[in-house]
Every structure is written in structure tokens, then in C-alpha cells.
Write a structure and sequence with these properties.
- The protein has 2 domains: 39-210 and 310-376, Antithrombin, subunit I, domain 2 (Antithrombin, Chain I, domain 2, 2-Layer Sandwich); 221-306, Alpha-1-antitrypsin, domain 1 (Roll), CATH 2.30.39.
- It has 10 helices and 13 strands.
- It has helices spanning 2-26, 39-58, 69-80, 85-95, 101-122, 142-152, 165-179, 277-283, 286-294, 317-323; strands spanning 125-135, 155-159, 197-210, 221-226, 232-248, 252-258, 265-271, 297-306, 308-315, 346-359, 363-376, 392-397, 404-410.
- The strands form 3 sheets. The chain has a 6-stranded mixed sheet with strand order 2-1-3-11-10-9, with helices on both faces. Strands 4, 5, 6, 7 and 8 form a 5-stranded antiparallel sheet that branches. Strands 12-13 form a two-stranded antiparallel ribbon.
- Helix 3 (69-80) packs antiparallel against helix 5 and helix 5 (101-122) runs parallel beside helix 6.
Length: 415
């Protein structure tokens, strides 16, 4: 009897273990090892990972570089709301969206709300705006429009790409100029929009903040700046001595300079080698950045920082394809079936980004805008109309040989 009881008890344990393994396998969110991070923390980490991935793609371009990964992520997150199938999977992998659609979009709403709410208390100005520009008369899924409206504040604006392409382009550009305080002009160049364009998703972000510790203008003076070529050029160098968060290791020095309110800061990564920028860029990933930032400690620092102002423009198609979302740009493979019921469907024809920054003694002004241009895959050919309601010629021929056997003309069928 004891043996039978022990056997049954062991069988129950095995069954219970099997049930637990099944639950943890097929419902990972119930796992004992599930992350205790909030959705906001997960989204921030995911966005940062995409930011550095994207930087690794565009850094090969020559000269100065400036962009807003948050603007790009936001515009593509709205686009992602309309993606399905393999296109949705590729976009999630490329953008590092580990949250599902139901959790991702409310989290973006929270991020944007908190950023803008903090700015009203922090003594700096930060605004984020989104909009959808859709072809009048073209059908979009109500659920897609609701997601972009409820979570991104993107009001749907009906336009006519087919008949008023240039006017529409100017209208979108004017909206972007307004939302970026005239810092981003002509984001969408002539020729980008066509009569086949059906939707443009736009994001605009603007920031202006003063340093918590401003540079004195009288301390700004000309100084040499060594280029990667080894040549030197003269720049206006700002100078101050103050306590800042600082760290260094064998390859890089880090300096963190807060803006008023201490909610936002600029982190400067300076390679120790004068020509070490390429090596630093090769080391720039989320893990290394996290480690570097964790070593920041407050200490008195002599700071020399050049004044600079720049505008950068990008067509991001190839960079995003290289990062893993080629289907979205392929007219044959793109799946945006959650965006429109149109059986022909849409694909991304262009992802355009432009950013501006001005760093001076008082602080920093920065703006950026992103546009995702959605194009119809094709316009169905109209069925030809062959109406013999006027005189015509006709031929009777031997198809195999091509010989004309009869030829005639009809001027009046009733004669």
C-alpha cells in the first residue's frame, strides 16, 4: 500500500512539474525569471539600442553628424501600427521593439507625455508633435487611425497627393517648420511625393535648454581644433571651470553637462587619442555606453568646448534595410494590411530625417523631423474600352501563316 501511495505521489509530482514547465514555456511572461522592468524602462532600452544601431549605419558619412533617433523611432512606431506578417516581425527586430503592439503604443504615449510634462517644470522647452497626411478618399483601417490618434496625438489630415502633389508637399513642410520653430525647413524635397503617395507619417521634435552652468562669453576665445586628417583649424572655444560628472578610462573621457532643471543633460565622449574617433565609434554600443555612464563621478573640471551649429539630412532607406527590415520597402513583399484594406496595399518608399543643433555659451537648441512616405504598390490598369461606334477597318487572316485573306471597312453597319 505504501509503495502504491508513493508511486501515486511521484506521479502527481511529475504531472505538476510537467504543467509548470508547459506554462513557463508557452507563457514566458509568467516565468520565474521574467524581467521586473517596467514597460517604460524596456522601451527606453529598446530605443537606445536602435539609436546606436542606426548611428553605426550613418557614421560612415563624411563630416559632422546629428540626428534624433527618438523622432525616427516614433515615426516608425506609428508606421509599425499598420504592419503585419513578416514586415511587422522585421520592423520589431530592427527597431528593437520587444513590447507587443498592445503595450508598445501606450508606452510611447507615456514617454512623450512625461518628456513634455517635465519640460514645463524643468526650465527648458521640449515638444513632440505627430501627424498623418492621408489621401482623401483612400481607405485606411479605423483601428490604425485610432492607434496613431490615441497614443501619438497624430490627427489625420486629408490631402490630395494625386492632384495637388506640390501643394501637399508645401503644406507638410510648413507644419514641420512651425513645430520645429523654423529650424527644419524643406524636409520633403521636390520629387519625393508623387501621385502614387497615399500616406505620410510625420514626427517633429524641438528642444531648447540653458546650461545649468553657463559659459561666460568673455571666456570664449579662438583656439585650434585638430581634424582627423591632422590639420588644424581655428574655432571659437568656450571655457569654464566647474564641478561636473566626469570619468575616463584608457580610451575615452566622459563629461556630463546638465541643463537647467537637471532633467536633461549633454554627455560628451572624447577619445583620448586625437585621431581616435573611429575606434571610439567602433566601441559605441549599449553595453559599453552603460558601463561608461556608470563610472561618472562629480569633480571639478576645466572644460573647453567649441561653439558649433549644424544641420544634417538623411534618406534612411538603405540604413533601415541593412538593419533588418527590407520587406517594408519592397513593393512586392511589404505587408501593411493593418493600415489599409486596399488589396494592392502600401509600402514605404522613403524615410527622411533632418536635424538641427546649435550649441553656444547659453545652452543648446535642437530640432528634428522625420517623414515616412507610404506609396501605393501600383494603380490597377483600367480595363480598355473597345466601342465600335464609328467607322473601322477589319481583316480576316490566316493566323499560322500570317496571310491576309480578307480586308474590309465598315462605314455604316446599316447599309
Amino acid at each position: 500500500m505504501n509503495r502504491i501511495s508513493k508511486f501515486l505521489e511521484n506521479e502527481r509530482c511529475v504531472c505538476l512539474l510537467f504543467i509548470l514547465v508547459t506554462i513557463f514555456t508557452f507563457w514566458p511572461e509568467t516565468s520565474l525569471f521574467a524581467s521586473d522592468k517596467t514597460d517604460k524602462e524596456i522601451a527606453v532600452e529598446d530605443n537606445n539600442r536602435f539609436a546606436l544601431d542606426l548611428y553605426s549605419q550613418v557614421k560612415e558619412e563624411d563630416g559632422n553628424l546629428f540626428l534624433s533617433p527618438f523622432s525616427i523611432s516614433t515615426a516608425l512606431a506609428m508606421t509599425y501600427a499598420g504592419a503585419g506578417g513578416n514586415t511587422e516581425t522585421q520592423m520589431a527586430d530592427t527597431l528593437h521593439f520587444s513590447l507587443n503592439q498592445e503595450r508598445l503604443h501606450p508606452t510611447f504615449l507615456k514617454l512623450m507625455h512625461e518628456l513634455q510634462a517635465d519640460s514645463t517644470r524643468g526650465g527648458y522647452e521640449l515638444s513632440v508633435a505627430n501627424a498623418l497626411w492621408g489621401q482623401e478618399g483612400y481607405k485606411f483601417h479605423a483601428a490604425f487611425i485610432d492607434v496613431t490618434k490615441n497614443y501619438y496625438g497624430a490627427g489625420f489630415k486629408g490631402v490630395d497627393f494625386a492632384k495637388n502633389t506640390e501643394l501637399t508637399r508645401q503644406t507638410i513642410n510648413q507644419w514641420i517648420e512651425e513645430k520645429t520653430k523654423d529650424k527644419i525647413k524643406e524636409l520633403i524635397q521636390p520629387g519625393i511625393l508623387t501621385e502614387l503617395t497615399r500616406l505620410v507619417l510625420t514626427n517633429a521634435i524641438y528642444f531648447k535648454g540653458n546650461w545649468m552652468s553657463q559659459f561666460k562669453k568673455e571666456s570664449t576665445r579662438p583656439a585650434p581644433f585638430e581634424l582627423i586628417s591632422g590639420e588644424k583649424t581655428e574655432v571659437l572655444m568656450m571655457n569654464q571651470t566647474k564641478e561636473f560628472n566626469y570619468s575616463d578610462d584608457k580610451t575615452v573621457q566622459l563629461l556630463e553637462m546638465p541643463y537647467e532643471g537637471d532633467n536633461l543633460s549633454m554627455v560628451i565622449l572624447l577619445p583620448k587619442e586625437k585621431k581616435g574617433i573611429r575606434e571610439l565609434e567602433s566601441l559605441l554600443n549599449t553595453e559599453n555606453l552603460k558601463n561608461w555612464l556608470s563610472t561618472l563621478r562629480e569633480r571639478e573640471i576645466i572644460v573647453s568646448l567649441p561653439r558649433f551649429k549644424m544641420t544634417s539630412e538623411f534618406l534612411l532607406n538603405e540604413a533601415l534595410k541593412s538593419l533588418g527590415m527590407p520587406d517594408a520597402f519592397d513593393a512586392e513583399l511589404a505587408d501593411f494590411s493593418r493600415m489599409t484594406p486596399d488589396p494592392l496595399g502600401l509600402y514605404i518608399s522613403k524615410v527622411i530625417h533632418k536635424a538641427f543643433v546649435d550649441v553656444n555659451e547659453e545652452g543648446t537648441e535642437a530640432a528634428a523631423a522625420t517623414a515616412v512616405v507610404m506609396t501605393i504598390k501600383s494603380i490597377p490598369e483600367a480595363k480598355p474600352v473597345f466601342r465600335c461606334d464609328h467607322p473601322f477597318v477589319f481583316i480576316i487572316r490566316d493566323k499560322s501563316a500570317g496571310s491576309i485573306l480578307f480586308i474590309g471597312r465598315v462605314m455604316n453597319p446599316r447599309e
